[in-house]
Records
---
Amino acid sequence: EPEVTQTPSHQVTQMGQEVILRCVPISNHLYFYWYRQILGQKVEFLVSFYNNEISEKSEIFDDQFSVERPDGSNFTLKIRSTKLEDSAMYFCATRAGTQETQYFGPGTRLLVL
Amino acid sequence: AQKVTQAQTEISVVEKEDVTLDCVYETRDTTYYLFWYKQPPSGELVFLIRRNSFDEQNEISGRYSWNFQKSTSSFNFTITASQVVDSAVYFCALSEAMVIKAAGNKLTFGGGTRVLVKP
């Protein structure tokens, strides 16, 4: 069964450093999302992406964040200058054009020191 | 704005007992979708079930069943004959109808209910 994959599974970085989180969507999926989950808390929407542009973003998704699909396969989330409060699990989700269900990747656990 | 509330933060049961998880939602949309996701200790989010707002038929799928009541904005989920492997955090989520906002369709999650099934 096709799966969403994410790399890396874990990343530790110093405050102020840039990180790039990568997602490989299920092959026929057209809609892409990033969510985050701070430890022990609810899953929060960050951004949705379709047709090579952002469809919607939350107030969490400020100028430090960006997304792109550089090569038509990977879908990336970049945090330009990480803060301590960016420490969280980041989930990529994708869905097909004809379906309502979003399928999640296994997540990247980001720790900012 | 959409909101999902899961009032139960943690439920502890003994194996083979039934577990019912409550979910109450708020939305101004007339057409929407409701979901349950499972997050086992390994951390991934696993899709379990989906229900459309225009279909209030309640169903059973294996040991899972759900009770969708539009009149009370509730979407409760039951695990029958629980097993230790059911131990996880369960999230209820809501999204607007794909037709209305084809590109957006973000999920709004509840706070989750931790289920602990003891042998």
Note: DSSP finds no helices and eleven strands in chain A.
---
Amino acid sequence: AQSVAQPEDQVNVAEGNPLTVKCTYSVSGNPYLFWYVQYPNRGLQFLLKYITGDNLVKGSYGFEAEFNKSQTSFHLKKPSALVSDSALYFCAVRGKRMDSSYKLIFGSGTRLLVRP
Amino acid sequence: DTGVSQNPRHKITKRGQNVTFRCDPISEHNRLYWYRQTLGQGPEFLTYFQNEAQLEKSRLLSDRFSAERPKGSFSTLEIQRTEQGDSAMYLCASSLTTGGAYHEQYFGPGTRLTVT
């Protein structure tokens, strides 16, 4: 079955420092991977996706993610964190290829706290 | 604003009452999804429409839940005889799928349901 794991419930980082939010996945076939961010009382906002091609994917708000097939990981990164990046981050994988709905399967989320 | 909209944003109801939520997707999107998110968890897939056809339902969607997308545009999600366990954020998402291309899902702000 397709699944994602976000091993950290919370990540704390100082403003201006680089940040990493971890995600590992388990899929059959080629993975379609996504990162979303959720601010309080709001829906999920799309950040970036990996479908194919370059392993380093660039997305919104200066975020990027590195796809690593051998480690089955898709970690979210940003070179310099901002206080406004504080939010809940979700990694997701698309359902299996035979599943025509293309539903997303989400991890449990990682809360990012950037301190001034 | 041409994003996904959901109404109401908040709903408080007593156990046993029926509730209905509405989702208006991005206008040209042919796929519409409903997810449920409980506190501290990632969203979980409930059901999906391609145009007006409901093509998949999760086993999470009990007989008390029904969803429609009558003209392939807006969708409604109804919960009959609500239970306290139905308390959650209900998220709607839409996407455009053309040919073999896969596009990300865009989420609405959600409807938070509280069953007392």
Note: Chain B touches chain A through 27 residues (CB under 8 Å).
